Amino acid sequence: MPGKADPYASIWAVSDGRAGNAAQVRSISQALLDEARFQRLQAVSSFTKDIKTLCLNPSTPGRILHKLGLLHPLKALSGKDQSKLAADFPQIWIGAGARTAPYSAWIRSESIGQTF
């Protein structure tokens, strides 16, 4: 229904797919499924029941050009990965790994501080 707020918070668990990073975001997001823990997050107004898991893999040339300030981080992603970020932004973004850092900063900026 348009204009009606979603009663549940949205969580995106984002990593580059490496086992250690994926395990970190998976563990944190699963811990948030415990309603008692979730309610302690003052930045979030509602409990969630679902988590969107994203694996972002920027190209090697794209990562290098972004670090040099010559390329927007989204341009380093494939079209498929870019479309994953085109949907409504989450209330909570959990990212692990250096490759997700530019996207974490971008989401924070684009969501005008609405993403925790």
Structural write-up:
The protein has 116 residues and is of the alpha/beta class. The protein has five helices and three strands. The chain has helices at 19-31, 35-38, 60-67, 79-84, 101-110; strands at residues 11-15, 51-55, 92-95. It is globular and about 45 Å long. The two termini are 25 Å apart. 22% of the residues are buried. The model is unreliable at 1-7 (pLDDT under 50).
Question: Could you tell me the radius of gyration in angstroms?
Answer: 15 Å
Biggest sheet: strands, sense, closure? 3 strands, parallel
The proportion of residues in beta strands is 5-15%
Low-confidence stretches: 1-7
Side-by-side strand order of the widest sheet: 2-1-3
Distance between the termini: 25 Å
The shape is globular
Helix segment tally: 5
Decide which structural class fits the backbone: alpha/beta
* DSSP helix fraction: 25-40%
**H/E element sequence:** EHHEHHEH
Number of strands: 3
pLDDT average, as an integer?
77
Short description:
With 116 residues, the protein is of the alpha/beta class. It is built from 5 helices and 3 strands; from the N terminus they run E-H-H-E-H-H-E-H.
Give the SSE map.
Elements: E1 11-15, H1 19-31, H2 35-38, E2 51-55, H3 60-67, H4 79-84, E3 92-95, H5 101-110
Parallel strand pairs: 1-2, 1-3
Throw out a few tags for this protein.
alpha/beta, 35% helix, three-stranded parallel β-sheet, 5 helices, 116 residues
